[in-house]
């Protein structure tokens, strides 16, 4: 059964890579390729979410949750898989809601920052998957330079979580205020 997960992982990783590259090309270049990238990124993002949902489900169906959660490496793998999904859900909602204006002004910057963040997180997910099957790569050495050994459970102090929640709330309030001021002008 584990072969199913090994096969499925290529789909979210492929679609996430393609969507991120389309966002970068659509943001930093002009011409036909950039135009196609901007127009076609939404269906690619939607496919990536579908592929990720199936792949994550396959992980939980193939390996019992108790077994997966008892290993720091597998815990980190699940954590980064869910984070990747979260980032690409955000990107999909932003591109969908903004429609043809998704790449205008400061929105473009938000898409680029999220795409780069997503790329580094899904690369980490794949790297940890490699460690789980004994195929290690140098990418985990890069993570070590940032202070994280993938064999230890990823940990952030509670004050960092609180700060992140606060930043999220501030962004939501700023968004609501700017929407209100736009609708009154
Ligand atoms: C989008 C989500 C996910 C991606 C992209 C992903 C990616 C990967 C990759 C690239 C591998 C290495 C496979 C190979 O080299 O053939 C792997 C292995 C593995 N993944 Fe995932 N994974 C995801 C979600 C999950 C989840 C939710 C679980 C939950 C239990 C999980 C559990 C595992 C385990 C246990 C292995 C080792 C397989 C083995 O020993 O045969 N993965 N994953």
UniProtKB/TrEMBL annotation:
Domain DUF2231: 4-133
Keywords, in A-Z order: Membrane, Transmembrane, Transmembrane helix
Transmembrane segments: 6-28, 40-65, 77-97, 109-134, 154-177
Top-rank taxon: Bacteria
InterPro entries: DUF2231_TM
Protein name: Heme ABC transporter permease
Species of provenance: Marinobacter guineae
């Amino acid at each position: 059964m584990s072969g199913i997960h090994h096969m499925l992982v290529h789909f979210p990783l492929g679609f996430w890579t393609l969507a991120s590259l389309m966002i970068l090309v659509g943001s930093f270049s002009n011409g036909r390729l950039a135009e196609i990238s901007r127009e076609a990124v939404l269906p690619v993002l939607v496919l990536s979410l579908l592929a990720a949902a199936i792949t994550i489900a396959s992980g939980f169906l193939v390996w019992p949750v108790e077994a997966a959660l008892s290993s720091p490496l597998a815990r980190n793998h699940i954590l980064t898989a869910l984070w990747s999904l979260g980032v690409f859900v955000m990107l999909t909602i932003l591109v969908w809601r903004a429609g043809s204006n998704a790449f205008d002004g400061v929105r473009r910057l938000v898409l680029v920052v999220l795409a780069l963040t997503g790329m580094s997180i899904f690369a980490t997910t794949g790297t940890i998957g490699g460690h789980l099957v004994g195929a290690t790569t140098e990418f985990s050495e890069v993570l070590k330079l940032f202070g994280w050994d993938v064999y230890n459970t990823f940990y952030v102090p509670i004050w960092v979580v609180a700060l992140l929640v606060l930043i999220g709330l501030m962004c939501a309030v700023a968004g609501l205020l700017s929407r209100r001021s736009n609708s009154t002008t």
